[in-house]
User: Fold this.
Amino acid sequence: MFYLRDMYSQIRRMLFMLDAEKAHYISMNLLKFACSIYPIRMLIRKAYSPDNTHLNTKLFGLTFKNPVGLAAGFDKNASYLRELECLGFGHVEIGTVTPIPQAGNEKPRLFRLPADKALINRMGFNNDGVQAIKRRLKEWKEKNKDIPSGERIIIGGNIGKNKITPNEDAWKDYEICFNELFDVVDYFVVNVSSPNTPGLRALQDKDSLLKIFSVLKANNDKHPHPKPILLKIAPDLELEQLQDIASLCNEIKLDGIVSSNTTISRENLSHVSTQKSHQIGAGGLSGAPLKEKADQVLNTLIEMTGNNIPFIASGGIFTSDDANRKINMGADLVQVWTGFIYEGPGIVKNICKNIIVK
Ligand SMILES: Cc1cc2nc3c(=O)[nH]c(=O)nc-3n(C[C@H](O)[C@H](O)[C@H](O)COP(=O)(O)O)c2cc1C
Assistant:
């Protein structure tokens, strides 16, 4: 078991020789193959799953088996849920999902900055589209229907707009994704904060958010059991914009905030990575250099909202210290993405060893 957990440093060396996006698909498909063999799946689950008994976290009326989730953009198409469940994640946020399938930006579009434990991406919402993803989630839900709450992995649906949809019609894309995924996800996240879809972040202004959320709420209220709808924000917002979002929380009763997405800033990079980032060009920066900025935005928004609404913290989480810092600020759950690439499949178990459970 120890051997399994320790193997990642060797595997990572090989994976880091490949193009970053290729390495992502190769490693996840290898894991998928390994998990298709029952005894191996059990072995992986035993090696990487934290002991959940004391880690259950109740939020939005849901029971998360532990507070550590996988951030959006890793399993965009809901293709690896069983594998991610074996690695111990308490929740997985699938997506960003758009109404129509789209290829995303030209490759290469994902880059590593190992000297800084960082990534830069300009994926551009590549995804299979809401219908295909809904089918996959329906199958998953059917297979897992007998797993009791608190043991089952929670699925978040991160929704967005297609690149070709003009901003004034963006609310229609969010509405389509919301209605299509309603029965197959546990909570929703409205993503208006990705730097890689032109103009998307302009939807973080108050009027656009009011429009999107009022439409989604009207749809949500038609159901006997409405689903939590959260907002995912960028870490690059000015104080005034954060103030707008905080006041919006009261006006439209947001169910929670995911703070934060990747940054367009290139602060906190070492000399090596700064040079490399110039060659790479545009994209969102994630991982260790985002840590400080993500902490600041989280802290500011929690203070502005009077710690009255739930927060999911994302940005630069690698260790239980990182997770606990965010939880001590007031976050209820944490999510990893870049940390998973650098720390490997043991990240959930490692964070959970010393995590504060609310
Ligand atoms: C390659 C890549 C793709 C991403 N795609 C999405 C996405 O589709 N939707 C989204 O809301 N966030 C997306 N993110 C942002 C992550 O969900 C996360 O918020 C961000 O990377 C900060 O966390 P980290 O420092 O742990 O990586 C993506 C991040 C990366 C690295």
The chain has one domain: 51-353.
